[in-house]
Amino acid sequence: MPFNVDATTMAQKLSSLPGLTGTLVSLGRVVSNWEYEWIVTYTHAYLDVPLLELDKASVAGSAVYTKTTRLQKGFGIDGVKVAVEVSSNNQDYSTSGNVYHYTPTPDVYSLHPNHGPLIGGTEVVVTGINFQNTSSLRCKFGERATAAATFINSTQFTCISPSGLNEGDVYVEITNDGLFGESIFTSSRNVFTYDPEMKIDSVFPSSGPITGNFSVQITGGPFKKTDTIRCKFAEIVVVASWMSYDEVLCTAPPHSQGVFTLELTRNGQDFTDTLIPFTYYEEQGVRSISPTFGPAHAAGTRIDVDGVALVNSSLLSCRVGYVVTPGEYISPTKMRCTTPPLPTHSGGLVPASLPEYRNQYVDPNVGSFYLFPDAHYYPQYFTRLVSVEVSNNQQDFSLSGINFLYYQDETLEAIAPTQAFDSDEPLLIFAYGQNFINTTALACRLGLQTFAATFVTSKLLLCEVAHPMLYDDSRRSSDKFHDLTQPRHALFEVSNNGKDFTTSHVIFEFLGACPTGYFCPKQLQGSNGKIPCPRGTYCPGVGNSAFTLCPRGAYQPKTAQAACLRCPI
Predict the structure, then answer these.
(1) 50 shares its domain with 119
(2) Is 2 among the domain residues?
(3) To bridge 93 with a disulfide, which of 87, 108, 155, 554 should be the other Cys (CB 3.0-4.6 Å)?
(4) Residue 429's closest CA among 396, 393, 466?
(5) Domain count, the chain
(6) Gyration radius from the chain CA atoms
(7) Containing H/E element for 8?
(8) Which of 130, 165, 195 is the last residue in one of the domains?
(9) How far is Cα 250 from Cα 233, in angstroms, rounded to an integer?
(10) CA of 175: how far to CAs of 113, 158, 185, in Å?
């Protein structure tokens, strides 16, 4: 182009060059002495291009030294190659044909991840511009330089972080020319953080069903608030939720049964073993419970659970309604739980007929069955139905819950009779109280032995007591039992479910054996149940249920005698 080329011609010439399509040119200010100025506008932004600058003071012998300085703009991403020749008189240059390659100045936009452990080894993806695929591509973490690991393209490559000197932030800079002379590193000031050592204090729960989809709480730290926190269950990596600097939550994925490692990373790459094994087990379930009903307010019903895949763990538990209670492991198919009081937010007790209650299984092919198949529709009872489920980790509960019926607590107010003489004959005792339920489990307990009760009304029961197993009262000593002729006391209690008995402390007194000279018929049990032997009879020893006539040649003119008299004639 001539030195006085017009702006349109220059724009056409520049636009024909590679990478300069669409270049705009306008004429600048007019300069005297035949000098011209043009204003060139490029469609893309180009960074500073380093040029060679000769240090004239270093000219000597067979070599000279140069340095690059940022002098002008305008070269594309591939830079430009120029011949390098030398001259001693500034006119006659050599013709050696050596080429110098000007490359665009690189810059760093981001680092991913931007933090890692102090021991190093983190593969960091560097994103920026004007990276060159050469063996001299370098990263510098603080004062420690390292070669590029993998060149991806001119905007991305990877570096492995070296070990750090201290925890904290360092600047990461890069250079395309990291082999010879004084390397020119970028000044983008992107920060990489060397994290403090991560410690794990607890994992809860440390086990779960093979179906997964439950939360696992990991405490320890420090945990940096980033979107790159991950948990790895065996070989499966899942996203973690940051809760605080000492707590994260992970959702366990489905996995096969067994014991596996649980690892955690703060940068999505460098995993740390929690050193707490994580156990996957078969999904637990419930097949039946006993009893299926209990008091609502006294609570404490001990439920025997027949289940599947139960695990001997401190987290083994039952959920009664919405309340979780600890479980007692017996075997892989047996456990025991204690019911809590009926929660206040459960809706309370409502009147209902027992035949209306049933268990509905999850499997639609199984259907349902009645809890009280032989019960009558009347009377109605104040009750509330809740579901009993089990869990091996106190978090994931079985889908196959079994219904449990809370009922209004029964109370015992009085009994009749309140005392009786010892007898081999069964003893009939009426119990008066409130909220008795007509079930086959209805029972009464005298001393240490339980007997079936007969439902009369919701306020009256009849108990037939035979050969009760008594315990001694407060007068008992370790080496002495009371004489059977002495009175003894025992608590009388009733229960709707045969397990949870009243605590009203109604006392029944055993008066001992029927005394000498008296007989105690079955029909007259109680305090007035002893009858003196009539005249002409005798009642020898103790425990007589009937009198004996005096034999021939003997008589007895008195009552309540233990023997007859010989006739004088």
Answers:
(1) no
(2) no
(3) 87
(4) 466
(5) 6
(6) 49
(7) helix 7-15
(8) 195
(9) 10
(10) 20, 13, 5
Answer whether 398's CB lies under 8 Å from 413's CB: no
Three-state SS for 522?
helix
| CA distances, 124 to each of 120, 187, 209, 381, 543 (Å) | 11, 18, 36, 70, 98
Strands in 488-539 per DSSP E: 488-495, 506-513, 518-519, 531-532, 537-538
* pTM for this model (two decimals): 0.63
Could you tell me if 297 and 398 lie in one domain?
Answer: yes
The band of 67, judged by pLDDT with boundaries at 50, 70 and 90, is low
pLDDT tens for each residue of 280-300: 999 888 888 999 999 999 878
**Domain assignment of residue 277, given as a range:** 199-281
DSSP string, 246-306: TEEEEEEPP--SEEE-EEEESSSS-EEE-SS-EEEEPPPEEEEEESSEEESSS---EEEEE
Residues 130 and 83 in one domain: no
List Cα–Cα distances, 499 to 197, 301, 303, 415, in angstroms. 55, 7, 10, 20
| Number of residues that make up the chain | 569
Domain containing residue 302: CATH number:
2.60.40.10
Segment holding 482, helix H or strand E: none
Q: Is the pLDDT higher at 64 or at 566? A: 566
* 525 & 507 share domain: no
Residues ≥6 apart with Cβ < 8 Å to 551: 564
- Residue 320: pLDDT band with limits 50, 70, 90: very high
Written as six digits, the tokens of 86 are 């030398």
Domain membership of residue 146 (yes or no) is yes
C-beta of residue 305 within 8 angstroms of C-beta of residue 335:
yes
Q: How far is CA 197 from CA 119, 124, 192, 334, 522, in A?
A: 9, 19, 16, 44, 84
Residues with Cβ within 8 Å of 175's Cβ and at least 6 positions away in sequence, in order, are 106, 136, 137, 138, 140, 183, 184, 185, 186
Which alpha helices (DSSP H) does 265-406 contain, by range?
Answer: none
**Alpha carbon distance 122, 417 (integer Å):** 86
Q: Are residues 371 and 425 in the same domain?
A: no
